[in-house]
Design brief:
single chain, alpha/beta, Elongation Factor Tu (Ef-tu), domain 3, globular, binds flavin-adenine dinucleotide, binds NADP nicotinamide-adenine-dinucleotide phosphate
């Protein structure tokens, strides 16, 4: 075995929402993860021995959900993709298990480029809510936003990560609106919240009623994260309303993070 890759971190806490969805806290052996910006992701990996006797690193990216002010570990929100190569292994790992953790976070899906004083509209499906939780946790005591809305579309209410924390924050913070919506809850189920895809919540009248402001680029920036088909649909919807994609060279009001490609 070549010494190229070494495990350098451990799972220090794990909370399962159900059999296919978990919160994981991963702590680097150094004691502190490198400074990062809320919205960024980190790679997590498993080291495999190849038939040639080398160490191969199988790694995947995960958005950081924890506050950028707490770096003893990073909190990740992970769904077990059916037959997924990496998540099938990761879901077998318990507290104490060794993993590889990238030494620093990456990505430009951050509030860099957000114009202070505007409203933030953070749209997600599934685990795509995690980067928004990091943003809210990090900045809530000195927010750059006027109002912040987190929309999270999931199949079932049991898939809603951070639900209690976000419900409680929304009850306490008049500048924060949390809009979870489910697509597959049976009609007689205990779920009494919104139903339908995130696109429905983005319809102008419904959005204005629930968020308290207009979905227009003069008032807000839109972030979209998660399922790529959802991102394409919501992107088309907001581009038609005048939002322009943000890139480092061309500041805009629309920011996107696709978790996979179709
Ligand atoms: C920037 C970035 C951030 C990410 N953050 C997260 C995160 O916070 N939480 C998380 O669970 N995943 C996240 N992902 C996805 C993650 O990197 C892996 O792709 C995922 O865990 C599947 O790995 P796998 O080896 O089990 O599946 P593979 O065997 O590699 O299969 C990949 C397939 O699984 C499906 N898939 C991948 N990710 C998801 C997902 N999240 N939800 C539904 N279907 C999916 C797609 O069909 C994809 O083609 C992120 C990806 C990127 C690029
Ligand atoms: N092991 C388990 O218990 C378990 C359970 C569920 C899922 N999984 C696995 O986890 C993976 C991810 O499932 P997930 O539910 O987290 O993610 P997902 O399949 O991306 O679904 C999350 C939400 O996105 C919605 N959506 C899909 N396409 C959309 C679009 N074009 N526009 C707007 N909304 C859209 C879905 O609505 P619709 O319902 O209308 O599609 C759903 O409400 C699955 O592929 C599966 O492999 C495992």
């Amino acid at each position: 075995m070549t010494p190229t890759h070494q495990y350098n971190a451990s799972i220090v806490r794990r909370e399962d929402l159900h059999a296919g969805l978990a919160m994981l806290w991963i702590a680097p052996d150094t004691g502190e993860f490198a400074p990062f910006l809320p919205g960024q992701f980190v790679a997590v990996g498993r080291i495999e021995a190849t038939p040639a006797g080398e160490r191969a690193l199988v790694k995947r990216s995960y958005s950081i959900g924890s506050s950028a002010n707490e770096r003893a570990s990073v909190q990740l929100f992970v769904v077990h993709v059916d037959d997924g190569e990496f998540t099938s292994w990761l879901f077998e790992q318990r507290v104490g298990a060794r993993v590889w953790l990238a030494p620093k976070a990456s990505g430009g899906f951050t509030l860099h480029g957000f114009e202070r004083g505007k409203n933030l509209v953070l749209v997600s499906t599934g685990t795509g809510v995690a980067p928004y939780v990091s943003m809210y946790r990090t900045y809530r005591n000195d927010p750059p936003w006027e109002r912040i809305v987190i929309i999270n579309g999931v199949r079932f209410a049991a898939d809603l990560g951070f639900r209690e924390e976000l419900e409680s924050a929304a009850a306490d913070d008049s500048h924060f609106v949390y809009l979870p919506t489910t697509t597959r809850e049976a009609s007689g189920s205990p779920w009494i919240g919104l139903r339908g895809r995130v696109n429905d919540v983005m319809e102008p009248q419904q959005f204005r009623t629930r968020a308290g402001f207009e979905l227009v680029p003069s008032q807000c920036h839109v972030y979209i994260c998660g399922n790529p088909a959802m991102i394409e649909d919501v992107e088309a919807m907001v581009v038609a309303r005048g939002f322009k994609k943000h890139t480092p060279g061309h500041p805009g009001t629309l920011h996107m993070e696709k978790y996979w490609t179709d």
